[in-house]
Amino acid sequence: MDQRVIAALLSSLSLLPFAAEAQTADHPDLTGAWGIYRGGRGADPKLAAPPPTPLVLKPEYAKPYEEKRAREAEAQKRGEQLVNGSVQCVPYGVPTMMSIAIYPVEIIQTPKQVTIIGEAFSEVRRVYLDRPQAKLEDVAPGYYGRSVGHWEGDTLVVDTIGIKTTVNGYRGMPHSEQMRITERFHLVAPDVLHDQISIEDPVVLEKPMTYTVAYRRMPNYEMVEFVCDNNREYIDENGVVRMKVRDH
């Protein structure tokens, strides 16, 4: 074989590890545990989540929604909690599971799938990469719907449909089966991740709305088990959550 051909082959083989490394380095690695980042005094404003856009419901949905929020506020003033999904040990679902109080989320990233695990209620959602989204009528409604994703440069874009209507939306908003959620995961700093969540629903919303959840990486954090097993509370005839004083 010609020496020049042999040299060219050896050169190309020597570059294979670097080519493979470059291919995996095309996208940022989001694997790990991420805690809610709320910024605060002295924090870089570029790292904090931007304010949400207005939530504008259509009139027939706006009034019941505001009445419900008012009842919740009054109950809180009285030190009471009205019945909701978490009290009934029901999963939060998408998108609420992405930001539950102080509970972190864990991301497991592989070439074909991104798995997101919420520590609260141990909720799990799967994002299938580089697959076409299914038709809405072909998706069985559920808490997490069907999510497909693709990379746009260093941003992971996720499209989710098929969230059943009993799952509360952003801030407990109602929604129809036509709700569509688009997320854009982007590192704004090496250890700060933003999940920009846009919600469209032509039935319930006057216009799409967007909010962002900010996370900070939690190195070496180990997710803990969270199982909803509540035998201390009950719901009275007025829909108020009460604490059992004694067993009957």
Please, could you describe this protein's structure?
The protein has 248 residues and is α+β, with helices and mostly antiparallel strands. It has one domain: Calycin beta-barrel core domain (Lipocalin), CATH 2.40.128.20. The chain has 2 helices and 11 strands. Strands 1-2-3-4-5-6-7-8-9 form a 9-stranded mixed beta barrel. Strands 10-11 form a two-stranded antiparallel sheet. The N and C termini lie far apart (91 Å). Residues 5-24 have low confidence and may be disordered.
Quick one: overall form?
globular
Strands of the widest sheet, in order across it, are: 1-2-3-4-5-6-7-8-9
Unreliable stretches covering 5 or more consecutive residues: 5-24
Residue share in helix: 10-25%
Please outline the helices and strands.
Layout: H1 3-24, E1 32-36, H2 59-77, E2 105-109, E3 113-118, E4 123-129, E5 146-152, E6 155-161, E7 180-189, E8 192-200, E9 209-217, E10 233-235, E11 241-243
In short:
The chain is of the alpha+beta class and 248 residues long. The protein contains two helices and eleven strands; from the N terminus they run H-E-H-E-E-E-E-E-E-E-E-E-E.
Question: Keywords, please?
Answer:
alpha+beta; 248 residues; Lipocalin; globular; two-stranded antiparallel ribbon; single chain; 9-stranded mixed beta barrel; 17% helix
